[in-house]
Input
Amino acid sequence: QVHLVESGGGLVQPGGSLRLSCVVSGSGNFFSKFAMGWYRQGPEEQRELVAQITSAGNTDYADSVKGRFAITRDNRKDTVYLDMNNLRPEDTAVYYCNADSPVTPPYWGQGTQVTVSS
Output
């Protein structure tokens, strides 16, 4: 059974930074084959893709976070990270980690709350 556990959320002031982590367990040696993504869902909003990184290490970002967020992965630790800088109040949301591949169903974590407020 594949499990994703996010951590690193919290309360931060505008302009601040946070690093989110997502550890994947139960995948055996399959983690490196997953495309990993970070999504977020604000209050009364639909879940949206924030950033993704393919198994080859290619990255893509939502326009709203380009230049401020960075997604990376460590295949030795079965972990994906989201470094968030220059945070804005509109970045407030629950952030979810996603693991996907052509031969598996998508897997989701439980989410971690990020609140940007003074």
In short: The CA atoms of residues 32 and 107 lie 14 Å apart. The two ends are 40 Å apart (CA to CA).
